[in-house]
Amino acid sequence: MTLVLLWLLSLPLPALSEALDLQCTLQNVFNPGFMADGHFVIGGIFPLHYNQEMPDLNCTYKPGPVKCNGFDPRAFRWALAMKLAVEEINNSSKLLPGHTLGYKIFDSCAYPLTGQRATLAVLNGRNEADMPMCSGAGPMVAIIGESGSAQSIVLSRILRPFMIPMVSIISYFSSCACLSDRREFPTFFRTIPSDAYQVKAIAKLLLHFNWTWVGVVRGDHAYGHFALQGLLKELDGTSVCIAYQEMIPLLYNTRRALEIIHVINSSSARVVVVFSAEGELTPFLRDCMEQNLTGIQWVASEAWVTASVFTESKYYPLLGGTIGFGIRQGHIPGLQEYLMMVNPQKYPSNPLVQELWGALYGCSPSPSSSSSGGTQLPFCTGQETLHKQHSAYMNTSNTRITYNVYKGVYAIAHSLHNLMSCKPGNGPFINSTCTDVTKVSFTISGERVNFDMKGDSIPSYDLINWQKGTAGNIELVKAGIKYDIFIYILLFTKNYNYLSFLTSDCCVFGKQVPVSVCSDSCTPGFRKAVRNGEPLCCFDCVPCDSGKISNQTDSIDCMACPDDYWSNVDGTACIPKVVEFLSHDAMGVILTVIAVVGACVTLSVFTVFLYHRNTPIVRINNSELSFFVLFSLTLCFLCALIFIGEPTSWSCMLRHTTFSITFSLCISCILGKTLVVLAAFTATQPGNNVMKWLRPVQQRIIIFSCTLVQMLICAAWLIASPPFPYRNTQYQHSKIILDCSVGSDLAFWCVLGYIGLLATVCFVLAFLARKLPGNFNEAKYITFSMLIFCAVWLAFVPAYVSSPGKFTTAVEIFAILASSFGLLLCLFAPKCYIILLKPEKNTKQHLMGK
């Protein structure tokens, strides 16, 4: 309206007066491509050209109309399919008997502005040029259109303000999910499924081939916008991420196209999903070829996956291997013969037929004609025969969009037939009415055609793969079918094994598909660590921590192994932990040998003393106590063997009690010997009768009493909190350390403390008697033995606390053996030396120092 006002103001005064005349005048002529009269007229709007050239809009003069370029033989076939369907219905005696259908077919130029103009033209009477403006409309009942969703939205919204409720729109190629809104588009129907189903199928396709890093290119229209939003919704929560989203401008711009191509080339995503129509996609793909864009796996939407314009051999390096979902194909009987009948002689004044000839043969039947691009074409007779190789026009073997147009016309005819033949109270609709025009069902070419409550066709898709034909062109191979709209199952036929995918070098056949991931999959033993600021599909592979595993590819987190298990080296499985205890391995064998040798040496000394029991050195040192000491030392050596082997409940209780009682017995005997030695030398003083208190009976009582105290401590220990086997999994996580827990730490240290107390008392008494007269003063050797004993056990305390695993037990055994050897050597080595090597000194006189 603003442009019109500016134009009026720019006119001179006489012209302005003429322009403001009350008489309406037609400013431009917009004639239909095909037209026929009938009782009911059906409009048809098709993108007979796929590109447009905008006029100069500088507002200084009257702008010209939008110029359409790029004749599309495929869309021309759609228009002829509508014309064929109308003629079949008019010749039918069963459908609409006594009535005929007319049609008016216009070109939308694949552009909403031109589509709007075509919509107004199709509503405005028979012919704009033959009748006054605004004088009345023809008997229009429905419109077959449009191909693009944006154009269909314009078409639907134009009808609402004009209050034309009886005119329904049946689209053959507008799949935008937005058009399913019955409140906004109450008279819109379509024979193509909604994009709500297509995006579900594409999402499942991406997941099936593990294409987790994909780019999306869409057109600048409602179809592209809603398809992208639907795909993002379907991919939400899945493993697929969108690397980029690019939009081809509605008015094509080469500079913007080059920017998009740069994004595609620089991205690591090798799979690109394209929601676009042929109009904007054709120049874009040409620019892609000029930029030598290769190595892209294209996933096509139904809007262009079956476009014949791209099947030329020049497109194969770019588009070979393209995969996508095409709408269901159908059979139109007699279509090929009908197309063959179209020629310039039959339609001498139809400019569309002239352009068809130019597109198919590169010539014009009229010397003054030119191509849609403006170039002058050579002359031809117009009698050339159409050949099957003109696939964009003559491809009738797998009609899809053409079949949708055909179904749309029959849907209108059946709806009119039902309305006209329906009797009130006996109708096929709710409450037996005849007024619900939204319900129609019929059979055509063996297919049952139904519409859901939203006016959409029940969906069914073919999986299409673009493969190289024998002639070097692209062949559209049906590789699989998507069925069942309720559970959305993606099914592949046996042809799935022969899918062709184009890589940067060559075609790869079979199940070997291109890889399109932001990050390579994490193998078992690793987990995914998301990179900061990047999508979830971009991650680093981090090895699982010790004790954790991942046994699946692309694990989000590592699982912790149970307490008794640990991860293997690769971090892929939990294996039983190594059970460690002081077994009969190298260390255990060495300690066993030392203990046995110590016991054998002790028994040898016992034998020597027994054999020489009547000699002075044995008798003067209290042979009975010496035998008790040797017996207890033998037990001390042998008790070390109980510490070797797998701990059990009995062995844990036995090892500590045996060790404590035998050492208490040994130290008690040595204490008795010390008291006897000290008493023997003090008894020589006048009036000292201490020896009567240290007779053999009293000595035995002392030994038994001292040992009994330790036995009582051990009994209380076993009753209150006995030692028990303990599986230590905390000290070294990769191992289970089997050891004996002392149960009560207090009892354990009481046992050791009591032994230390006996040793300390014995050491003090022996130290006091160390300088008593005599060549063989046993008090000296007892002093040394207690000094070694105390030193060993004092060193044992920090070593025991700090030793790991089985070395704790080894330290305890070492302390037992070291202290036992210390006692044995200090107390009995000098005596054995005299007995065996110096028998001449084994006399009372020598030992008494006289």
TrEMBL record:
<keyword id="KW-0807">Transducer</keyword>
<dbReference type="Pfam" id="PF01094">
    <property type="entry name" value="ANF_receptor"/>
</dbReference>
<dbReference type="Pfam" id="PF07562">
    <property type="entry name" value="NCD3G"/>
</dbReference>
<dbReference type="InterPro" id="IPR011500">
    <property type="entry name" value="GPCR_3_9-Cys_dom"/>
</dbReference>
<keyword id="KW-0732">Signal</keyword>
<feature type="domain" description="G-protein coupled receptors family 3 profile">
    <location>
        <begin position="587"/>
        <end position="850"/>
    </location>
</feature>
<dbReference type="InterPro" id="IPR017978">
    <property type="entry name" value="GPCR_3_C"/>
</dbReference>
<feature type="transmembrane region" description="Helical">
    <location>
        <begin position="586"/>
        <end position="611"/>
    </location>
</feature>
<keyword id="KW-1003">Cell membrane</keyword>
<feature type="transmembrane region" description="Helical">
    <location>
        <begin position="657"/>
        <end position="681"/>
    </location>
</feature>
<protein>
    <recommendedName>
        <fullName>G-protein coupled receptors family 3 profile domain-containing protein</fullName>
    </recommendedName>
</protein>
<dbReference type="InterPro" id="IPR001828">
    <property type="entry name" value="ANF_lig-bd_rcpt"/>
</dbReference>
<feature type="transmembrane region" description="Helical">
    <location>
        <begin position="813"/>
        <end position="836"/>
    </location>
</feature>
<feature type="transmembrane region" description="Helical">
    <location>
        <begin position="701"/>
        <end position="720"/>
    </location>
</feature>
<dbReference type="InterPro" id="IPR000068">
    <property type="entry name" value="GPCR_3_Ca_sens_rcpt-rel"/>
</dbReference>
<comment type="similarity">
    <text>Belongs to the G-protein coupled receptor 3 family.</text>
</comment>
<dbReference type="InterPro" id="IPR028082">
    <property type="entry name" value="Peripla_BP_I"/>
</dbReference>
<feature type="transmembrane region" description="Helical">
    <location>
        <begin position="781"/>
        <end position="801"/>
    </location>
</feature>
<feature type="transmembrane region" description="Helical">
    <location>
        <begin position="623"/>
        <end position="645"/>
    </location>
</feature>
<feature type="transmembrane region" description="Helical">
    <location>
        <begin position="746"/>
        <end position="769"/>
    </location>
</feature>
<keyword id="KW-0675">Receptor</keyword>
<dbReference type="InterPro" id="IPR038550">
    <property type="entry name" value="GPCR_3_9-Cys_sf"/>
</dbReference>
<keyword id="KW-0812">Transmembrane</keyword>
<dbReference type="Pfam" id="PF00003">
    <property type="entry name" value="7tm_3"/>
</dbReference>
<dbReference type="InterPro" id="IPR000337">
    <property type="entry name" value="GPCR_3"/>
</dbReference>
<keyword id="KW-1133">Transmembrane helix</keyword>
<keyword id="KW-0472">Membrane</keyword>
<keyword id="KW-0297">G-protein coupled receptor</keyword>
<dbReference type="GO" id="GO:0005886">
    <property type="term" value="C:plasma membrane"/>
</dbReference>
<dbReference type="GO" id="GO:0004930">
    <property type="term" value="F:G protein-coupled receptor activity"/>
</dbReference>
<dbReference type="InterPro" id="IPR004073">
    <property type="entry name" value="GPCR_3_vmron_rcpt_2"/>
</dbReference>
<dbReference type="InterPro" id="IPR017979">
    <property type="entry name" value="GPCR_3_CS"/>
</dbReference>
<keyword id="KW-0325">Glycoprotein</keyword>
<feature type="signal peptide">
    <location>
        <begin position="1"/>
        <end position="17"/>
    </location>
</feature>
